[in-house]
Amino acid sequence: MTALEAPATAGAVTFARYAVPPNDLGYCGPDDVDALLADAAAGFVGPGLAERARAFEGAWAYLELIAAGAGADPLDDAVVRAYWLGTPLAARVDPAAFAAMVRARFAGQVGGAWDGLGEAGGAVPHHGFQVFGIYPWLGVLRAGMTGPALDVLDRCRIGWGRVLSRAGERAVVRTRPLTWDGARLGLGRPGARVVRGSAGSPGDWVSLHWDRICDVLAPAELTALRRSTAHQFDVSNRTGCT
Q1: What angle do CA 143, 150, 89 make, to 5 degrees?
Q2: Are 63 and 79 contacting, i.e. CB atoms less than 8 angstroms apart?
Q3: Distance (Å) of CA 114 to CA 131, 138, 193, 199, 234
Q4: What would you measure as the largest C-alpha separation in the chain, in angstroms?
């Protein structure tokens, strides 16, 4: 077992659950999609999983940054959840260190806004910033070209919803969609959405990524995800949508 494989336990499983949906669609991560990530998402950790996680270069940069500040391994479960859900551990990262990482790692990324980067009370290193601050889709909205941008942003962010019903690998969840009024991001009225994934029973709160259930959320995780999402919206709306 290599040093990178050693921590591939709970954190690697959590990482896989959130990374599988976009990787299956070919949006991020390694090109040679195989059963390794899917098996890990189901709880079966095999050799090489940590290397596979490291191939998600964007996410891995955040994991390394959060881990360095916490004195932990990048695949520590608390670090992984901080990235995907925006738990308080992410907010403990020094804004200057975060800004330096972004400028070094994403210098060639076209179209990102980098709203609130390096500011006290500004951008926080979690997936919400990657979606709204690094990817170009928010810039597309700001340019007045709604097109598919709002739908992409809504599915790429980590959302949440309550399971209403289930039929095998499909579930109906009640969730709030992303909204854009021409100047500001927000969340609309709750509505039903059909998603995939075996996690969650009726009544459970679950996390969503690209129309797939990733995990059942504990109350503290649901609160963290709501708060980190609201904070990211505030940063984006305050700095770029006025």
Answers
A1: 105
A2: yes
A3: 10, 11, 31, 34, 13
A4: 52
Query: Residue 123 has what DSSP assignment?
Result: -
Determine the Cα–Cα distance for residues 203 and 165; give it in Å rounded to an integer. 8
CA distance 242 to 237: 7
On whether the CB atoms of residues 213 and 229 are closer than 8 A, the answer is: no
Distance of CA 80 to the CA centre of its chain: 10
What are the tens digits of pLDDT across the range 213-234?
Answer: 999 999 999 999 999 999 999 9
CA dist., res. 80 & res. 10, Å (int) = 9
CA distance 192 to 133: 28
Poorest-pLDDT segment among 6-20, 143-157, 208-222: 6-20
3-state secondary structure (DSSP) of residue 63: helix
Rounded to whole angstroms, how far apart are CA atoms 200 and 57? 29
Question: What does residue 162 show for φ and ψ, rounded to 5 degrees?
Answer: -110, 130
Q: SS3 for 198?
A: coil
Residue 106's alpha-carbon distances to 3, 96, 134, in angstroms, are 27, 15, 8
